[in-house]
Amino acid sequence: MPPFINRRLSITEWLSYVAAYDFGRIAPTRVVLHHTYIPTIEQWRGLATMQGMQRFYGAKGWRSGPHIYVAPDGIWLATPMKDIGIHAGTGNSGTAGGKLWYSIGCEMVGYYDKVRPSGAVWEGTKAVLGGLSKRLGIAPRQLISFHRDYTNQKSCPGWAVTKDWVWPEIEAWLGNQAAPPQPPPPVQVGTPTPENEALLDLLMNESFQRRGDGYNPDLAFNQYAVQHSLGFPTAKAATLADGGKTYAYQAFARDTLYCEVPRWGEVGRLSDLLGGSIPPSGLGRALLDATYRASGAIFHPDWAFHQYAVAAKLGPPLAESTKLKVGGVEYAYQVYALDTLYNKIPDWQAIHRVSELASASDAASAQLRDALLSATYQKAAGVAYHPDWAFHQIARKLNLGAPLSDSYRVTSGASQYAIQVYATDTLYNIIPKWQEVRRALPLASGGSGVVALSAGGAVPAAKPRAGMQASTLPEDSEIAVVLGRGAVFEQPGAPFHIVRYRVPFAAASGTRSGARARLLVLHSSTGSAEEDLRAMAAPDAQSMAHYYITAEGQIYQLADDDRATFHAGMATWQGRRQNINRISLGITVQRSTKGYTEAAKKALAWLVATLRERYNLAHVVRWGDLDADSRPDGADLSW
Fold this sequence. Notes:
Distance between the termini: 38 Å
Shape: globular
Radius of gyration: 26 Å
CATH superfamily of the largest domain: Peptidoglycan recognition protein-like
CATH topology of the largest domain: Lysozyme-like
Number of helices: 16
Structural class: alpha/beta
Strand content: 15-25%
Helix content: 25-40%
Oligomer: single chain
CATH architecture of the largest domain: 3-Layer(aba) Sandwich
CATH class of the largest domain: Alpha Beta
Largest sheet: 10 strands, mixed
Strand order of the largest sheet: 19-18-17-16-22-26-25-30-24-31
Number of strands: 31
């Protein structure tokens, strides 16, 4: 886990602490101000919240975090101030004039898009900023920057917090003077709007989580990838050694990013090192080999597919090359993030791209296209390709690259959305407005992201399915796409849908430490669904199941199945006492005073059957059967 100090100081203690602090060989030259957004002041629980955030960062493999949290109960020390933190992307550190610089990340607990911080939080913040200004000998206007200075996706530290308010406040504090009159807070500044920020945060996290570690705009790789339209990660960040130096790297759809450790803000691109050719050795070759390995493939410099992909900058592979037969002809193909390459066997040098077949109208070409797309969907995301599904047609015609997920549902606020993640963008719509398909990334720059679905040429406009209300497309539609006849918007299939529930800080979860899920553990709860879900998603949560089923039969997923959630702990199973969290999936079912509803029982039966088939799970137990002290938990559940 990141080396959080987790020590609370009063303002007086902080001023003594910072005045005597030894920064070592290099002192920071900037302070980046943030707001936490979540946790809010109401959610703050002191040390429990700090430890929850530390576990959250640790579970993602982060080596550090922000340095200071200013909370209602005092000033909390997190990452040591002599270390480079992770909090502002390219604002974390860098070089200027050949010299390394880094910043201190200061988080104000709360959400300040609409109101300014006040009371204990603002008094503590003034002491932190003023104390650092005095200790470092740097004036507030040269020292203090905002998180939003380094990204256009965040309002952080809140739209209500402006430099023409903060700087004079700190100057007055340093001069022991009365604070100057406050300038009026802005109504709205920049993009995204406060209304879109929560949705954008959800969509970005889902998109980056498919093959990465989730989205954090404080990470330089994430920030750089979004600002330079590199798409989503195709693998988790990792490190390699070359030439006596250590480098961090991460593959994205359009390029692999790297930096020398710990110069996190100095992000480089693999494509710049390669220049369209394949080097025999050096850092470029090491990164190229690592990019292929991260996707389970091996780079062969003499293979035609690999040479073509480097020259055409198709991004990383998503699987090893393989074969398929279409219409009696055998083809080799390999899925890359931006396109799928194929050739007839044995014409190895006659390489083609599936995107070239996007508008194919003759039967043979359409058959080959759909066969290759089916193989692409299966190889890249383990899902089926449906040529009549609107998301799949739009992705093909906009050339969004390979899918990174199936379509699934998420919730943001009171709304549910259907989404599907592709290599370069995510398609989504609010349920049940099936025809209002949008793209996620334009939200980051203030656009609507609307995909205009229209008729053109000989292809008629898509019609809604029976019983579905047609919708009018907005006038500010940015992209026009012609769908095929009978395009399906609301995807048929399962009687139940699993909805992702947003858990910003998954405090009550960790890694499986190499173990795999072998059983399902059932729990019950007599609380309200809203309160139960909020408690499990809280930054200081001590327990959380993977799934929660409401009395109405709605299934929410709070954590990925490959994570170990804290729902069962230590218990005796199969003759020995062990950590059940690491080897199980947890399901909590809401129970009323009259028992379980029929809707909840049907949803449970479907979910249990789905998970057992997906992971070949032979065992389903009630938590009360494992823990003698918890006999009532799930005692009357059946499946």
